[in-house]
Each structure stands twice: as structure tokens, then as C-alpha cells.
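As promised in the previous annual report, we have extended the structural survey to additional targets. Below is the entry for Purine nucleoside phosphorylase.
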Amino acid sequence: MAETNSAATIGVIGGSGFYSFLDDVTEITVETPYGAPSDSLFLGELAGRKVAFLPRHGREHRTPPHRINYRANLWALRSVGVRQVLGPCAVGGLVPEHGPGTLLVPDQLVDRTKSRAQTFFDGEPLPDGSVPNVVHMTFADPYCPAGRSVALGAARGRGWEPVDGGTMVVIEGPRFSTRAESRWHAALGWSVVGMTGHPEAVLARELGLCYTSMALVTDLDAGAEAGEGVSHEEVLRVFGENVDRLREVLFDAVGALPKTADRDCLCTRAHDGWDLGIELP
Ligand SMILES: [Zn+2]
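The corresponding C-alpha cell record, generated without further manual editing, is:
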């Protein structure tokens, strides 16, 4: 799909705080072979780029991380023309150096989720009768290197020294970790813990999309702090304090991402050598 003809070429999966004040937002509903995404897509223009915003938990924040229809979300974004996705998210810091207010752009991911559909290639026929083949994606480097470098540059441009790289472990939730789990995660050298980064990243890769995670630390995880453990109030408070500058960084990053046709990263080669068996939107 040519860039000019697409409804959007860049997708942002995040909360309503990222698009609610944009001028001229168009809301569209998109159906997918996997059901409905978390919410409508909200289309807007930013730095001359067409962007589709998708509230990950729904606009009322009603869908918990383990119930999000990640497949529908990624499929819906691709179906309107999106080829690069920015995924801001709130995480816990596993070590004291990554305290509240830290922005970390991870380069690695560990999946500790339990119950989530995490592939499009599961042998289930699509409504059009096509059947996905068995496909094993290369996922050694789960994030787009070009998108990572754009996100890091955008953060530095706003005076926010980001952490360049680190491992995000994704837990099933919705509960927070026990102290033992948290200390275990830290002892393995992992940096931050979240609940939505998987399977978002791998599903993006399966669709040949660039995916960049931008992890805002809202709290120290249970093993790294001395109080009573993570509370939801604390998470919301720190997120609220940082959402404005995260939005500025995000918007600068949107403007700095390569044009769709100029992408030359490993994400664009995800399907090389594979017969998918299905037509991607
Ligand atoms: Zn890429």
C-alpha cells in the first residue's frame, strides 16, 4: 500500500492520553479475523505523518493485560496501512538504578505470560478459508533497531536521558510480582517488568511490522523496594507526572521514523523464505 493512500502508516498503542488533545481525530472501527481490537482506531496527523492510535486497554481502561486481543490489535493496525508501531507502556524497575521516571528502550524480551494467543500461524483457518502454514519467526532481536534509535534520539532531544537497552520481562498479571519472583527476575539480569509487551512485539514481527517499546518506569518492583510493594495508585501517579513528556518524546519519534518505503531493518525481512499460507492485510 502506498504511503499516501494509507489511512495511517504509524501506529501508537497506548492510552487515550496520547491522542485526546489532537485536532481532527477520526475514529474508525475495524473488524479482524480475530475479532475486535481493544477499541476503535483514532486517526490523526502528526509531524506530517498519518498515525493510528489504539488505546491498548480500551478507552475506559477496562481490559486487563491478559484479556487484551493482541492479535486483533496488530492486525487492525496493519489493515489500515500501519507498518511501524510505537508501544509506550508502564513498567516496574527491577533494580534501584531504574527508579520511577526512568525511560527505558528495551532491546530484549523475556516471556513469562501463560494464557495468551501469541501467533497468527496456529493452523486455524481464517474466515476467507485460507489456512496459515507452520511458520517459525526469527525473534532473536525482538525490537526494531531503527525504531529504537529514533526513540532514544527523541528522548535525548527532550532532555530525558533514556536507558539504552535492557530486558523487559513480561508477566501474566494482573497481579504484581511477589518479592521472590521480583528478586529472581532481577538476579537473572533483567531490567524492567511489564504485563503487555508480550505478545505485542512478536505479533508485530509476524506481520512484518517494526515494533519499538518505550517503557516508562512507574515504580520499583517488589524485590527492589523496601515498602509494602507496588500499588496501583503509585503507578497512576508516576505515570500522570510523566505522561506529558512521554507524549512529547513519542510525537518527536513519530516525525523521525523512516518513511514506509525507506525501511531497511530486520523487521522488513521477517517473512523471507516463508510461505505464510495467508494473505496479510
Ligand atoms: Zn524495523
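The radius of gyration is 18 Å. The first helix runs from residue 70 to 79. These points will be discussed at the next consortium meeting with the crystallography subgroup.
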